[in-house]
Specification:
This protein is an alpha/beta fold and about 210 residues long. It is built from seven helices and five strands, in the order H-H-E-H-H-E-H-E-H-E-H-E. Helix 2 packs across helix 7.
């Protein structure tokens, strides 16, 4: 991430996702014919995502030096046509979760075994599209759907009891962990949740601080 340059890199947004993304890509995602799919809804800060794709051999690390340049594959928002390993183009907040819900429905209809993982930010919960997606996924019991929610306490309205309560009341399986603790993240990602979608809230503290809510 340190070698990426540019005025529009949204460094804080990208940095908040680093640990959650690394654990997901290094320890949890399945490859192969029935591979898992990953959607970065928080696409305005893709530097950590690009760095991990480079570490995992999906893109040439030299491309990181060309971030945001003319004709670079690495734009300020990920482009699924240009970047190997990217499953959706993203950046406009509030789109990733609804797309993930639709994909989970599609995989179930086709009898496919892959899982859908989507990373969103707590600020995205201000978007009404997410409220509809959360409600539908709970009612439809989309077990293949996994949400990684980066909580840097930036949601305008918040939610009594924490943002995970927005999911819990709709029948989701929920967990809150320290978003910098790799063991806790992996355990939360791997926990069984039969017949229900799953959200893991990765608490990284308020922007500019390291304080994590107990």
């Amino acid at each position: 991430m340190a070698i990426v340059r540019g005025d529009a890199k949204h460094a804080a947004a990208a940095e908040s996702t680093t640990d959650a993304l690394w654990v997901l890509y290094d320890r949890v995602l399945h490859a192969g014919n029935e591979r898992d799919r990953f959607y970065l809804s928080k696409g305005h800060g893709p530097m950590a995502y690009y760095a991990i794709l480079a570490v995992k051999g999906l893109i040439d690390p030299a491309e990181l030096y060309r971030f945001g340049a003319f004709h670079s594959m690495l734009g300020h928002h990920p482009d699924r046509i240009k970047v190997p390993g990217v499953d959706i183009s993203s950046g406009s907040l509030g789109h990733g979760l609804p797309l993930a819900v639709g994909s989970a429905v599609g995989l179930r209809a086709l009898g496919r075994a892959g899982r859908i993982w989507v990373l969103i930010g707590d600020g995205e919960l201000d978007e009404g599209s997410n409220a509809e997606a959360i409600a539908y996924a709970g009612r439809a019991r989309l077990e293949a759907l996994h949400v990684v929610l980066i909580d840097n306490h930036s949601a305008t309205q918040g939610w009594p009891g924490g943002v995970e309560e927005r999911f819990r009341v709709e029948g989701w399986s929920c967990a809150r962990v320290d978003g910098r603790d790799h063991q806790a993240l992996e355990a939360a990602y791997r926990e069984e949740h039969r017949g229900r979608p799953r959200v893991v809230v990765a608490d990284v503290g308020a922007a500019g601080s390291r304080e994590v809510r107990p």
